[in-house]
Amino acid sequence: MENTLHSGDRIIVNRVPPSLAHLASKEYIPQRGQIIVFANGGNTTMTNCEAPSDTQEQYLVKRVIAFPGERVKVKDGKLTVYNTEHPEGFSPDDETRKSAQDGPKENVSGSINIVVPDGEIFVSGDNREGSHSYDSRNGLGTVPFCRIIGPAAVRIWPFSGIRIF
């Protein structure tokens, strides 16, 4: 998640929105551009929403890029999302990139053209150059709503980098 988060950073996750949604018998749907924490399901399709115990990392932190039915395309170093509101496509990072040192990096490696399945989201790390980020475009696949733990709320470590998301 570099530029936004770095190895060793500690964050507090807001588990309230997913809990309230589940109490109302609904899926929790995060906002586009939001940083979320979710259970790592590895790169396998699972029939339930429990993360397997043999994964390298139990939880992953990524940025929400696209929702069910939207098409995500990575071509010529650009990530573009297509939907009914934007049939010509748009960059989901335009509102989340605050500077070259804060938010998603501009260059995106790889090539992908995928429609996000029902009940899932497309996520990406902020360091999208090369194969630095294990995300929906680079081996992870899309993430079921039921695996979302919650949005990142606050970075509490390092103290010099305390930040509300």
What would you say this structure looks like, in words?
- The protein has 165 residues and is mainly beta.
- The protein has a single domain, classed as Umud Fragment, subunit A.
- Helices cover 5% and strands 30% of the residues.
- The chain contains 1 helix and 10 strands, in the order E-H-E-E-E-E-E-E-E-E-E.
- It has one helix spanning 16-23; strands at 10-13, 35-39, 59-66, 71-75, 78-82, 112-115, 120-124, 143-144, 148-157, 163-164.
- The strands form 2 sheets. Strands 1, 2, 3, 7, 8, 9 and 10 form a 7-stranded antiparallel beta sheet that branches.
- The radius of gyration is 15 Å and the shape is globular.
- The two termini are 13 Å apart.
- The relative contact order is 0.27.
- The model has no long low-confidence stretch (mean pLDDT 87).
Structure described in brief:
The protein has 165 residues and is mainly beta.
CATH topology, by name, is: Umud Fragment, subunit A
Number of strands: 10
Low-confidence stretches: none
Largest sheet: 7 strands, antiparallel
Distance between the termini: 13 Å
CATH class group: Mainly Beta
Share of helix among residues? under 10%
If you compute it from the alpha carbons, what radius of gyration comes out, rounded to the nearest whole angstrom?
15 Å
* Coarse shape: globular
Beta-sheet strand percentage? 25-35%
Number of domains: 1
Write the CATH homologous superfamily: Umud Fragment, subunit A
Output mean pLDDT. Answer: 87
CATH architecture assignment name: Ribbon
The ordered string of helix (H) and strand (E) elements is: EHEEEEEEEEE
